[in-house]
Write a structure and sequence with these properties.
Blueprint (H helix, E strand, L loop, with lengths): L1 E8 L2 E8 L10 E7 L10 H10 L3 E5 L17 H16 L4 E11 L1 H12 L3 E7 L5 H7 L3 H21 L4 E3 H5 L3 H11 L8 E3 L2 H6 L15 E4 L7
Parallel strand pairs: 3-4, 3-5, 5-6, 6-9
Antiparallel strand pairs: 1-2, 2-4, 7-8
Helix pairs in contact: 2-3
Amino acid sequence: MKRAVEFYSEGFKLCGDVYTPEGLAAGEARSAVLLCHGYTGVKDLYLPDNARVLNEAGYVVMTFDYKGWGDSEGKSPNRLAPYSRVADVQAAMTFLGVQPEVNEEAIGIYGTSYGGATVSWVGAVDKRAKCIVSVVGIGHGARWMSRVRRMDEWFDLLEHSKSDRVQRALTGRSEMVERSDILLPDRQSAELAAAARRNNPAAVGTIPVEYVDDTIGFNPEWIVGQISPRPILFITSDDDRL
């Protein structure tokens, strides 16, 4: 069963969904998993499939939209704001932990793509996350961005980011560009993403150039070692061209 929920992070109201498994007895508290979407994702893109499988395994599951995404409130829409996302995940964990069907001592966090980076950081700073799963996550922003580009493309992107940084300081606005200009997906990834997003109006097509600075300044490799001795599972791909 799925129910819509609302909670707050740093003063903004965020929207989420809680999925409860069949056979949940009255007064029973189950282990729970918080699912976190990626770079430009929303809670209704990809994650409901994960929630269904985890429900079948007996877990309570929660999805949500970060500040400024989907139906969630936010100061500015469609920003990456990685450290703000960390706060959102922590607020979601707090909310999930007080639900009557959840054992607050048994909450895991799961993130795909950039969500994998987010949950790695959260796991390092918040011991309430009893286990962490990062699926094709990012450990070092600059290394990832540079490796999917030719060297001249990488330097061009840095120059574009530098000029946008000045514009943001002078005007408070960042230039909006196609998400593919920043993400730079391979053809197959672009086709799959387009198909998935076609029927989801909340999945945006443009993002601010500010994403570049945000990505470069957020590197979970710096602190991931703090997760130990709690478990973290990294799931990667042999042919991850994105």
